[in-house]
From TrEMBL:
Record-linked PROSITE patterns: OLF
Residue ranges of domain Olfactomedin-like in the record: 142-398
Disulfide bonds: C143-C325
Any one of the GO CC terms: extracellular space
Matching SMART domains: OLF
Keywords: Disulfide bond, Secreted, Signal
Subcellular location: Secreted
Organism phylogeny: Eukaryota, Metazoa, Chordata, Craniata, Vertebrata
Signal peptide range in chain numbering: 1-18
UniProt xrefs under InterPro entries: Gal_Oxase/kelch_b-propeller (IPR011043), Olfac-like_dom (IPR003112), Olfactomedin-like_domain (IPR050605)
Highest taxon listed in the record's lineage: Eukaryota
Protein name: Olfactomedin-like domain-containing protein
Organism: Amphiprion ocellaris
Listed GO biological process terms: signal transduction
């Protein structure tokens, strides 16, 4: 502003000091200067305001950005965590599927056979291999399911005598009915439906066997019938009968005293067979003085005995039993029939501990079971209860792996 002032003064002097003119000009200029100053103040205020507003805005955006960044990183972490969890669940599912598939046992058994063949062929069974082979053998019946409950019951029909047995071949849909406690005839139906629709039990294919079956303890698996044959005062025999060709393919003696029977409440059950992917199981009493039920594992094709266990389950008050994945479930009742219940469990791999196996009550029903036959494909029991043919559907859970 100074140079402007000096210029104005010199200009005033040049114009011969016209005092009034100078004064007027000075006033005019002062007013202009004041106006300019006012406007400058205004601008200053405005810019100040803009500046603070800008600062506030910047602060706000910075905060918002910070918040967004945090949110993003937590979101990212969450996503990562979820991804890891999904992976884990997927792996667990794979494992559960591999372990619980009904074929798991068969696959292991096949592996064992393969290894045996390889070992013999190559002649290279070393000590280490032998140990593995032993371990593998002991795990052949290592299914991982136990029964957790009885989901439902279906009373299908009432045919035949109060005592008897019925079962379904897990590998076909065919149903076999054993009326009474012995005989040389069995009745075949194409399906459970076929059986439930039929009038009585004779309106189907009747199969005459070359010898009598003794007791409701037979088993049918993959087109073969396994039954107990016991002629008076003779040893017990297990017979393997081909249902397709109608011929006996094998028999095996069993060291059982003639008048011992496996379940105290069902004296007609000489011995009880169960067949599945793992082989053939036989529940029996070696002699009448033996208080506990014995279990034998047999080769389903050759009827060789592979191993024998004392189940430590008493025969007293037992009415039936069945085998699921290498675990025996013994069903007890009272002489005056009340509720049947699984009260003793025996696992050949010692993997099911008694605390883990629930006390399993059967739904309140008429009398007492003569037989209970487990079907591994359907996970259900075929029961014969006072002449009623009943299906129990089971719920399963995984064994706790120690
Ligand atoms: C079933 O067996 C009982 C006795 O065991 C017999 O009286 C009855 O006639 C049999 N029923 C049929 C349809 O064979
Ligand atoms: C039968 O089993 C019980 C356990 O339930 C056991 O204490 C007893 O020693 C067993 N008896 C024989 C003869 O094995």
């Amino acid at each position: 502003m100074k140079p402007l002032f000096v210029l104005l003064i010199s200009v005033a002097w040049t114009f011969t000091g016209a005092q009034h003119y100078y004064q007027g000009l000075m006033d005019y200029l002062e007013n202009r200067l004041l106006a300019i100053e006012d406007r400058m103040q205004l601008w200053h205020d405005l810019s100040q305001r803009y500046h603070t507003e800008m600062k506030d805005f910047k602060k706000l955006t910075a905060e918002a950005m910070g918040g967004l960044r945090n949110d993003h990183s937590t979101l990212f972490k969450d996503l990562e965590g979820a991804g890891v969890r999904v992976d884990r669940v997927e792996r667990e599912m794979d494992y559960v599927e591999a372990q619980t598939s009904p074929r798991a046992c068969a696959l292991k058994a096949e592996k064992v056979v393969e290894q045996e063949a390889w070992g013999l062929q190559e002649g290279r069974v070393e000590e280490e291999d032998e140990e593995e082979w032993e371990e593998l053998l002991s795990r052949v019946s290592d299914c991982v399911e136990i029964i957790s409950g009885i989901r439902s019951v279906k009373i299908l029909k009432r045919v035949g005598s109060p005592k008897g047995m019925w079962t379904r071949d897990p590998r076909s849909s065919k149903v076999y009915v054993f009326n009474g406690t012995s005989g040389d005839t069995i009745y075949q139906f194409d399906s459970v439906r076929d059986f439930s629709r039929s009038l009585g039990i004779t309106s189907s294919r009747n199969i005459r066997l070359p010898s009598d079956w003794s007791g409701p303890g037979s088993a049918v698996y993959n087109g073969f019938l396994y039954y107990i044959q016991q002629d008076s005062d003779m040893d017990v025999q297990v017979v393997r009968y081909d249902l397709l060709t109608g011929s006996v393919t094998d028999t095996a003696m069993f060291p059982v005293e003639s008048h011992a029977s496996v379940y105290n409440l069902n004296p007609e059950t000489v011995a009880d067979l169960a067949a599945d992917d793992e082989g053939l199981w036989l529940l029996y009493a070696p002699s009448d003085s033996e208080p506990n039920i014995s279990l034998a594992k047999m080769d389903a094709a050759t009827l060789d005995i592979e191993q024998i266990w004392d189940t430590r389950c008493p025969r007293e008050n037992a009415e039936a039993a069945f085998v699921v994945c290498g675990t025996v479930y013994v069903v007890y009742n009272t002489r005056l029939a009340s509720r049947s219940r699984v009260q003793c469990v025996f696992d050949v791999n010692d993997m099911v501990i008694s605390e883990e196996a629930p006390l399993l009550y059967f739904p309140r029903r008429y009398g007492a079971h003569t037989s209970l036959k487990y079907n591994p494909e359907e996970k259900q029991l075929y029961g014969w209860d006072d002449g009623y043919q009943i299906i129990y559907r089971l719920t399963m859970k995984r064994k706790l792996l120690a």
